[in-house]
Amino acid sequence: MNAKFDVGIIGGGIIGQSIAYQLAKENISVVVLEGNKVGAGATSAAAGMLGANSELESNDAFFQFAKESQQQYKALSDELTNLSQINIQHVDKGMYKLAFTEIEADELKAAYKEHHSLEWHSKQQVLAMEPNLSQEIVGGLYIPEDGHVSPKHVCAAFSKSASLLGAVIVENSPVHSIKKIGVEEYILSTTQSTYNCSHIVIANGVWSDYFFKKLALEIKIKPVKGECLAVSSENISLEKTIFYDHCYIVPKGDGRLVVGATMVENDWSTTPTLGGIQSLIEKTTPILPTIKSAKLLETWAGLRPQTDDGKPYIGQHPNGENIYFATGHYRNGILLAPKTGTLVRDLILKRKLNEDYVEAFSITRNLAKVVR
Question: How many CA atoms lie within 13 A of 132 on its CB side?
């Protein structure tokens, strides 16, 4: 039997590592059990967009949560770099959400009127900033707050920082069972060892569905496969993230342009398909015509964990057990990681919570039945 931990976290992606970091900062003993390598799942497949304004459209609790999480990255950039010496590559140059028709322009302008931080830019203004974009655009919504990070570096920085603060990170250790052996006492079993923990956090993305079934919770998470590609070209200059019709182009500091992403439901394969990559090329070329001459560097795919309503589950087991969930972040895992970490920390430490967030991400909101 290993030493006892206050918290055992199942899943070593960006969500699990964010939680571990926040708990370790509070001197809570934490073990993170990752079935593969840290950040090897959906985290490593993401482009790293912090698209609170571009991805979310309703001004609800989910949107406010996303905005707060986006803001946390500003402080985390320095905080994590100073502690871990890993630069999370936070780029804060904003995003253009493009319009190719007047109808699309009117829809974007309506959003601009509701959010004071957004700006409508004419075709001439957009092309003055990003001259390589298509001449066919009619304008674009400039979103100054929607930058991007490197998901791999953020996850690594969370992980190293948590470790430096005392957390134990164990790779290649998939958890196959959770057993309650007493009041506030659980055993996490892997093929190599067992871990005694007072609290459990399930944060292993699409594979959380396994534990929902084990815990007799009638909740489902399904995989939504996303394929991406990366290119480079000395002839393309792009400063801002470009977004149009659920397709994005993210310029990275090393000269790469990351393009994504397809959405294929209930596909567990992490191998890109020719059809998927072709669809990305067909969507991207009208946006950035010169990309046709770019060098194709790599393609990849990952599995987004999607809940019934597209919002994550962040909360405590409905029976009041010391089992918590932080999963189902779908397209927004990178964006929501900082705030998810602090919310789970506050749940475990029983701090005052924003009840709107508790309700929005409740485990029971889509729960038809809890088998007791």
Answer: 21
Average the pLDDT over 256-266 and give the result: 96
Angle between helix axes 333-348 and 14-25 (nearest 10 degrees) is 40
Query: CB-side exposure of 103: number of CA atoms within 13 Å?
Result: 0
330: left (phi over 0), alpha (psi -120 to 50) or beta: left
| Core vs surface per residue 97-131: b (16+ CB within 10 A) or e | bbbbeeebbeebeebbeeeeebebbebeebbebbe
Q: How many angstroms separate the Cα of 22 from the Cα of each of 151, 174, 193, 231?
A: 18, 22, 25, 35
> Residue 217: pLDDT above 80?
yes
Check whether 275 has a pLDDT greater than 80: yes
Separation between Cα atoms, residue 121 and residue 123, nearest integer Å: 7
Least confident segment among 110-114, 122-126, 274-278, 328-332: 110-114
- Torsion over CA: 91, 92, 93, 99 (sign): positive
83, 199, 202, 372 from 181: Cα distances, Å: 37, 12, 18, 17
Q: Are 264 and 225 in contact (CB under 8 A)?
A: yes
**CA distance linking residue 301 with residue 362, whole number of Å:** 29
State the first-to-last Cα distance of the chain, in angstroms, to the nearest integer.
29
Distance CA(260)–CA(152), nearest Å, equals 16
Q: How far apart are CA 302 and CA 226, in angstroms?
A: 5
- d(C-alpha 229, C-alpha 258), whole Å: 6
Dig out the tokens for 252 from the structure. 């990275």
DSSP sequence for 98-125: EESSHHHHHHHHHHHHH-TT-EEEEHHH
pLDDT digits (tens, 9 = 90+) for 332-370: 999 999 999 999 999 999 999 999 999 999 999 865 433
Q: How many CA atoms lie within 13 A of 259 on its CB side?
A: 28
CB atoms within 10 A of CB 346: 16
CB 111 within 8 A of CB 118: yes
